[in-house]
Design a protein that fits this description.
Elements lengths: L4 H20 L6 E2 L9 E3 L4 E7 L3 H4 L1 E8 L2 E2 L9 E5 L4 E4 L1 H10 L4 E4 L8 E7 H7 L2 E3 L15
Parallel strand pairs: 3-6
Antiparallel strand pairs: 1-2, 2-3, 4-5, 4-9, 6-7, 7-10, 8-9
Length: 158
C-alpha cells in the first residue's frame, strides 16, 4: 500500500525527532526548524551545523536512495539544501554524509538524473537514484544497529 504525502511527511517528522534526540545527547541545544523549510531540518548551535534528514525505508527494497533535485519543476532537496550533513534513515541504520560526498558518489557511479512520479507524489520529480553501497562508501559515519529506536518503528528485514 502506498502512503499518502501527508503520511510520508508525518513519518519524516517522527524520524527527524528521532535523529534530533540522538544529537541532543551530545548537543542539547540542537533543534528542529519547524514548517516548510528547504535548507535544512536540524540545527546544532554548539557546532554551527545544519542537518538534512531523509527517510528512505524503500531503499531496503529498491537498493537505491532517491536524491531529489526538483519537484514539480521547482528546485528541491539537493539543489536547495544548505545542510552540512545529510542523514539517511533506512529503518535499520543512519548514514551521515555531506553534499560533496553525495556528489562524489553520483559522479563515481555515473548516475543520471531521472524524472518520475513516486507513489505519494502529486507532481513529477527529478532525482538521482544512488545505490545504497555508493552512499555508504562515501559517507562520514554509519550508525547501526539502531537499538534506541522508538517502539512504533516496526521494521523487519527481508
Amino acid at each position: 500500500m502506498t502512503q499518502s504525502w501527508e503520511q510520508a511527511l508525518s513519518f519524516g517528522k517522527i524520524v527527524e525527532k528521532y535523529v534530533l534526540s540522538k544529537i541532543q545527547k551530545e548537543y542539547p541545544k540542537a533543534f528542529i526548524r519547524d514548517g516548510l523549510w528547504k535548507q535544512w531540518d536540524i540545527y546544532v548551535p554548539e557546532k554551527k551545523l545544519r542537518i538534512e534528514v531523509k527517510s528512505d525505508v524503500y531503499s531496503n527494497k529498491t537498493g537505491n536512495f532517491v536524491v531529489e533535485t526538483s519537484y514539480g519543476g521547482r528546485p528541491s532537496a539537493l539543489t536547495t539544501s544548505t545542510a552540512d550533513f545529510w542523514v539517511f534513515f533506512t529503518g535499520f541504520k543512519l548514514i551521515w554524509i555531506t553534499k560533496d560526498q553525495i556528489m562524489a558518489a553520483i559522479k563515481e557511479g555515473m548516475i543520471k538524473n531521472v524524472r518520475f512520479k513516486g507513489g505519494s507524489d502529486t507532481k513529477e520529480k527529478q532525482a538521482y537514484l544512488v545505490p545504497v553501497p555508493l552512499i555508504e562508501k562515501h559517507s562520514t559515519k554509519i550508525e547501526e544497529p539502531l537499538d534506541d529506536m522508538p517502539s512504533n518503528f516496526n521494521f523487519k528485514r527481508k
